[in-house]
Write a structure and sequence with these properties.
By secondary structure, this protein is of the alpha/beta class. The strands form 6 sheets. It has a 6-stranded antiparallel beta sheet with strand order 2-1-4-5-6-7.
Length: 1047
């Protein structure tokens, strides 16, 4: 068995997913990788995919390489050795990939660091395609194979069995088809654009012709407008000369009026000037009066300040006098305190003389002994406190555990909520009605029970299936009313809300009438456990209805199968044994008794029951835990008592030590206090206020203030005299100013008539001047417009030729305007296009010519491209049809061996030129009564998809020349027969001498299967205690020896 180029020779992994370190050397044909779940079979395929590809998506697992590093490690290493033949330089191809938790990774080729692009180039030369599901199918991507659309399946099949040339030809066809489609779209766009431009020009052709006619009329209008301007300017020049003469006459009249009234104007002006001078003098005098008032106010303020200074001097002296008296009292107090301290020192001396005081050394030794005793007590106290904390922690943990147990007990006791949740899943109308009933119980006369399945408690879960089998589902979700009127009322409410539920009536709680026909010891002798009624608990009315309707009190049940059925048939019409229900019925025609046997289904509604055993165990656990809590609380009380006693003893030692320290420090304290008080007395005596100096200072300040106040009073009297004189002058000036104002008013009234006359004359002059300016401006504007129309700059450029032109033809302004209006009316009646439309018309004419040339060129290119594409498509279709027929024949043959049918078809799109829409579809049939159906992720079961996928891949393998293939648990979901058939065909094909290398991952080997020597079985055994190397050969020999002994 020799390797071929591209075969995997060795796989090495370190710190990768579940592996610490692993090395695997596969064989050149079929390699079956087996092992228990979780040992790392798929990890080998995953590592092989990651080292041969730069994309984590090929594994179908994590998206980041850091997710593949083993937990607790920082970096993973994967290395694969690929056979390259004996003639190649450098030997086999060794690819290595290292990556870490930070998603940093590096590829190595022959031990040298390289980019993945270089690795991929070498792999493609060997025909390795890891991203092709037909060649490499990991466990997590098995389902993706069935999800591939027909186009993806065709492309992957081409890569696998058609060769790179066929795939490249397909891709080239798709590209050329797309280019041709774009060319046709461009051709259609230009054709439509060309037609659009032609249509647009046809629509505006008449308007463009009118535009040219309008231009001709416009030129005639311009000539007439020049003639009109010539005659208009002549008329305006004559009018201007007449208006100028009229204005000059009015100006002369105005001058004569002004000369006659000028003396009166001069007199009024002189009086106005005098009055203005007097007004200024009045303002000056008013400012003088105001300034005098301000100075007087300032002097009054200063006078008040001097009085306040006298008062401040008196207040300062009084404050110093108060401070002096206070200092005297403070000195007296300090002397008293000093005397008290000296008395205490004398008393202390007397006491020490009477009782005798310990010397300094003895006192220090006694204090140290008390300190040691206190420390010992403190350590004992710390020990007690530490134990108390431990007891408290233990008690706290016990309390938390007790709360948890109570919660679990409450959860076991409160099964109604779980039953309602289950009811919500199984029957929503009944659930909504039960919730409504909880909120509206007061509307009914008597008790209305919610659905029976929420009330029944099966004492043992094994009996739930019998209760559900005996009581129909409609009654398990039925509501039970004790009063018949409540039945009708509840029915009306539920009909209004459109709820579909069942309502029954049971008016009695008495179960005494429902006694079994046979006593319980009798059925136990037959092998039964009990009656069905004894297995459930519930309200009396509910059980009364069930017994009355379904005879639960007469239905025996047996969990085991030790009951003699023939003995039981004569006593009971219905009973349960193990998972079976026995029911007897009598024929209406022959009167024969028939026994029906049916399977009991698993319970659906009565799965939430009160667990008495579990509840009792939890209660007992809670009781024991409560006893421990009580014990801890008693111990805690004792510890607290010890803590209190030790704290008192420590406090007593501390008090004795304090007394000794106080005795040692008492004399020092008293002496220090005496020195401090003496120092305070000296400092207070030095800082004492001198009343004589303070009195002299007060007298001096008062004398200065009195002198300044006298000067201020004298200045104030002088200012008041000046103020009276200034006010008198101001009154006289105001009277004279009033006289002048009255004179001006009298003269102004007399002059008003004269001003009105002059004003009217001025207005006439202004109006005449405005008319002259208007005529001059109109003439200038008309002349300028005439010059512009003639193309001249100055009036002097108008020569005899121009004048003779205007003198010939139509004469006069009116005749010229009449002819001009006539031609303008003709022009305005024409419907024409504007200049932009004409420009667009001309531009479109050019575009139409260009588009015609482009359309001709594109048509030639489209015809040539279509011809080339048809030839290439015919060649490709011929190859792909042959390939499809070959694959379909092989696939059909393999499916036939599985007693099924299947074929592979080439799907063709509606647009045959769209080569990207061609695809492969797999059609399968697993039952003879069915038709062939396309393989999809929805139409077939998981096992059917697994069989189809495996056989399709096997069909491809008989045709392709890839160096190796991988399939991870492709047999998952197959039944035993299909799995054996598939593995048989796989071994037949893959152990052929010309077959490529194959890796099949499966959780087990089929028993008694005839594997040959070309099958290499690789067992993956992983765990914390597995040795690095297992003596496989010794284990095989030992097994053979044991088998021979057994025979």
């Amino acid at each position: 068995m020799a390797f071929i180029e591209g075969n995997i020779v060795r796989i090495y992994m370190k710190d990768f997913l579940t592996f610490d370190e692993m090395e695997l050397c596969p064989k050149p044909h079929l390699n079956v990788i087996i092992g228990p779940n979780g040992t790392g079979k798929s990890t080998i395929m995953c590592g092989l995919a990651l080292v041969l590809s730069n994309k984590t998506t090929v594994t179908g697992r994590g998206k980041e390489v850091s997710e593949y590093v083993k937990h607790g490690k920082e970096m993973a290493v994967i290395e694969v050795e690929i056979f390259r033949g004996q003639s190649r330089k450098g030997g086999n191809l060794v690819v290595r990939r290292e990556f870490n938790k930070a998603n940093a990774n590096q590829f190595y080729l022959q031990g040298q660091s390289v980019s993945f692009k270089e690795v991929d180039s070498n792999l493609k030369k060997l025909g390795i395609q890891v991203d092709n599901l037909c060649q490499f199918l990991p466990q997590d991507r098995v389902v993706e194979f069935a999800k591939m659309n027909s186009m993806q399946l065709l492309e992957n099949t081409e890569k696998t069995v058609g060769g790179q040339q066929l795939y490249n030809q397909h891709m080239q066809l798709c590209s050329r088809g797309g280019d041709l489609q774009q060319l046709r779209q461009r051709q259609q766009q230009i054709r439509e654009q060309h037609q659009t431009e032609v249509d647009k020009n046809q629509r505006v052709d008449a308007e463009v012709q009118n535009h040219h006619k309008r231009a001709q009329l416009q030129r005639e209008i311009e000539k007439l407008q020049q003639r009109r301007l010539w005659f208009l300017y002549t008329k305006l020049r004559v009018d201007h000369i007449e208006r100028k003469k009229n204005r000059d006459a009015l100006v002369a009249e105005l001058k004569a009026l002004k000369d006659r009234w000028q003396p009166d104007v001069d007199r009024i002006t002189a009086v106005k000037n005098d009055s203005e001078d007097m007004k200024k003098k009045i303002l000056i005098e008013e400012r003088v009066v105001s300034n005098i008032s301000s100075e007087a106010t300032s002097l009054e303020s200063r006078l008040n300040d001097f009085v306040e200074q006298r008062q401040d001097a008196v207040r300062d002296y009084e404050n110093k006098e108060k401070v002096h008296h206070q200092q005297q009292r403070q000195l007296q107090d300090l002397h008293k305190q000093l005397a008290t301290i000296e008395s205490q020192i004398e008393t202390l001396d007397e006491q020490e003389g009477k009782i005798g005081v310990m010397d300094e050394e003895t006192l220090t030794r006694a204090i140290n002994e008390l300190t040691l005793e206190g420390q010992g007590l403190s350590r004992r106290l710390a020990g007690v406190q530490e134990e108390a904390l431990e007891v408290q922690d233990t008690r706290r943990n016990h309390l938390a555990t007790a709360r948890d147990l109570k919660q679990r007990i409450d959860n076991l006791n409160d099964t109604s909520q779980r039953r309602l949740q289950l009811l919500q899943q199984r029957h929503r109308d009944a659930y909504q009605a039960a919730i409504w009933l909880q909120q509206n119980t007061n509307r009914f006369k008597d008790v209305v029970y919610p659905p029976i399945c929420t009330l029944l408690n099966v004492l043992s879960p094994e009996y739930a299936q019998y209760v559900e089998d005996r009581v129909p589902r409609a009654d398990l979700i039925a509501f039970v009313c004790r009063d018949k009127d409540d039945v009708n009322l509840l029915k009306r409410f539920t009909d209004e809300k459109r709820w579909t539920i069942n309502i029954v009536h049971s008016g009695s709680d008495d179960l005494s009438q429902f006694r079994p026909d046979k006593p319980e010891h009798y059925i136990k002798n037959l092998g039964f456990d009990t009656y069905l009624l004894q297995t459930i608990e519930g309200p009396g009315a509910v059980l009364h209805y069930l017994c009355k309707t379904y005879k639960l009190h007469n239905i025996p049940v047996a969990l085991g199968d030790k009951v003699n059925v023939q003995r039981v048939l004569k006593d009971f019409m219905s009973f349960y044994i193990a998972d079976s229900r026995y029911t007897q019925s009598r024929s209406r025609y022959s009167n024969d008794v028939m026994t029906n046997l049916s399977q009991v289904q698993k319970p659906m509604l009565l799965t939430q029951n009160l667990q008495h055993d579990r509840l009792n165990a939890l209660n007992e656990q809670l009781r024991q835990l409560q006893q421990e809590i009580n014990s801890k609380e008693e111990r805690l009380k004792c510890l607290h008592a010890s803590e209190t006693e030790l704290s008192r003893a420590i406090e007593e030692k501390r008090r004795q030590k304090q007394q000794m320290l106080q005795q040692r420090n008492n004399r020092k304290t008293l002496l220090a206090r005496r020195d401090h008080k003496q120092e305070q007395i000296n400092r207070t005596a030095q800082d004492q206020v001198n009343l004589a100096d303070a009195l002299a200072l007060k007298e001096h300040k008062m004398q200065l203030a009195s002198r300044d106040a006298l000067k201020a009073a004298e200045g104030l009297c002088e200012l008041r005299q000046r103020h009276c004189s200034a006010k008198h002058n101001l009154v006289i000036m105001r009277a004279y100013y009033k006289y002048q104002c009255d004179s001006v008013t009298e003269l102004t009234n007399a002059f008003q008539e004269m001003e009105e006359t002059v004003a009217l004359k001025k207005q006439e002059v202004n109006d005449a001047t405005m008319r002259v300016r208007e005529s001059m401006r109109s003439g200038q504007d008309t002349l300028a417009e005439l010059l512009r129309s003639l193309g001249l700059e100055k009036p002097t450029e108008i020569d005899e030729e121009v004048r003779s032109r205007f003198n010939a033809g139509i004469q006069g302004l009116e005749a010229t305007e009449e002819e001009l209006n006539k031609i303008e009316a003709h022009r305005d009646c024409l419907v024409t296009a504007d200049s932009q439309v004409v420009a667009e018309f001309n531009q479109r004419k050019k575009n139409i010519e260009n588009l015609a040339l482009q359309l001709e060129k594109l048509t030639t290119e489209e015809q040539r491209g279509t011809s080339d594409l048809m030839a290439m498509r015919a060649e490709w279709l011929n190859s792909i049809n042959k390939l499809t027929e070959t694959i379909s024949a092989s696939f059909s043959r393999l499916m036939a061996r599985m007693k099924c049918a299947g074929e592979v078809k080439l799907s063709t799109p509606d647009n045959e030129d769209d080569l990207s829409k061609y695809g492969l579809t797999i059609w399968v049939r697993f039952r003879g009564s069915e038709k062939l159906r396309e393989l999809t992720a929805m139409q077939q079961s998981g096992g059917e998809r697994a069989v189809s996928t495996a056989l399709y891949l096997l069909a491809l393998q008989t045709m392709s020349t890839v160096p190796f293939r991988c399939a991870d648990e492709i047999n998952q979901g197959m039944d035993a027969e299909n799995e054996r058939q598939m593995i048989t065909m796989l071994v037949e094909h893959m152990t052929d001498l010309n077959a490529s290398q194959y890796f099949l991952v499966t959780p087990k080997l089929l028993p008694n299967f005839p594997y040959n020597d070309r099958v290499n079985v690789i067992c993956v055994i992983n765990g914390p205690k597995v040795a690095c190397k297992i003596p496989v050969e010794a284990a095989i020999k030992r097994k053979k020896k044991l088998n021979s002994k057994g025979k």
